[in-house]
Amino acid sequence: MAEEKSESKLTVLVALGANFAIAVLKLIAGVITGSAAMLAEAGHSVADTFTEALLLTALRRSSRPADRAHPFGYGKERYFWSLMAAVSIFTSGALFAFYVGFKTVFGEPEEQTSPLVGYAVLGLAFVLEGTSWLRAVKQLRTEAAEQNRSVRRYLNLIDDPTVKTVFYEDSAALVGILLAFGGLALHDVTGDSLWDGLASVLIGVLLAGVAYLLGRTNLGLLIGRQADPAIVRGAREMLAAEPEVEVVVDLLTMVTGTDQVLMCARLDFADDLTAADLEIACVRIAGELRARFPDLDEIFLEPVPRTDPELRARVLARYGDV
Question: 203 with 240, same domain?
Answer without folding.
Answer: no
